[in-house]
Amino acid sequence: MAHKKFAVSPGFEEGGSLFKPEQLAMLGSIVGEDAKIELTTFKQLYIEMDESRMEDAQAQLRLVGLDIQPAGFFTKNLIACNFCRGAADAGLDLAKQLDQAIAGKEVPSPLKIGYAGCALGTSEPLLKDISVVKMNKVYDVYVGGEAKGIKARLGELFVSGISEDQVIPLVTRLITVFQERGKKKEKFSKFVERVSKGELYKLTGHE
C-alpha cells in the first residue's frame, strides 16, 4: 500500500493562523488511524497516508476550511503573526492575498516566507527566507534569514518603505528568480549570498 505526503494549513483569521478544534477532530477522522501526522516548524501539518484515499480525504478537508498544499520542495504557506494590532492595522487582507500568491510553488529548496504586522515581529520574520514587515503604512522586505544550524542568521533588509500594492509582485518575483537561478537543494540564504543582493535588485527591478 503506497503512502504519500501532503501539507495542511488552517488559513488566516484575525488572531492568526490557527487550527480550530473541530478541524483537528475532523482531520483525524478523515485521514484514518493508519495515517501519520507530522508537526512542522512552518505552521503546516504533514499528512502521510494511503495514496489511493488521498484525493477523497483532501476534498473532505477542504470542506472544513483547511488549505491543502504539496509537501517537499515547495514554498510553504505564509508564516504570519497573530495580527494583535487588529486586522486593518496589521494588514490581514494583504497577508491572505500573499499566502494565496506564494504557497505551493516548486522551488530548488523548501522556501519559508514570513509576515509581521508591526515592528514587534512576533512571527520571527527575520529568521525566514523572505519576510515582509509592516511599518505603519508601508512595508519592509528582508531576504536570507536562516533559523537552523550553527550558521543561523537574521535576514538582511532588501527594500524599505514600499507600498502595499508592491509587496506581492516583489515577493513573487523573488520566488521566480530563485526558481530560475537556484541550484537543486540550495538554501535560499546561500542563494542570496551567492547571487548577491545587488544582482537580486537588478533581477527584481529594484536597482
Automatic annotation (TrEMBL):
Keywords of the record: Iron, Iron-sulfur, Metal-binding
Domain spans labelled Nitrite/sulphite reductase 4Fe-4S: 83-202
Domain of life per record: Bacteria
Segments forming a coiled coil: none
InterPro entries per record: NO2/SO3_Rdtase_4Fe4S_dom (IPR006067), NO2/SO3_Rdtase_4Fe4S_sf (IPR045854)
Record protein name field: Nitrite reductase
